[in-house]
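Listing S7. Sequence submitted for prediction.
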Amino acid sequence: MKKIYLFSILLLVWTIITGSKYYLFGMILIFILMKYNFPFFRTVNIKNFFELTIFFLKYSLLGAIEVAKIALNPHDYPDSKYINYQFTHPDITTKLVFCWLVTLTPGTLATELSDDSVVIHILSSKNDNTNFLKILENKIQSALR
């Protein structure tokens, strides 16, 4: 599968979302980053990146529904907790993208990142989120190869 730059994808999506007047700025920024070989430039497997996007959107929707249930039920207080998630992949870019996506998922928040683990706040401890976190990290790693 053809590999392309992650930042090119993200900036292209960003320019499309923000409107056509910022498109030129995004293209100039992409060119500058490519010319000077920005250290976070990675190649992306498009198929795996698409699978990661679908996976993330699915769990974001499920998380939003869960948060809405908690917010709309005044008699059921959330049973939040902190968990310590140990990374299985040593790559720093995988860790950063993982923390960004966990923070964007409704009901979760990455609070402290260390070399080999991250502390995550979970709004509802009723669900077992460790399986989701393992799958998310593996999908990020496979998308960034």
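Caption to Listing S7: primary sequence and predicted structure tokens for the chain studied. Helices lie at 6-18, 23-35, 46-72, 92-104, 130-143. The longest strand covers residues 81-86.
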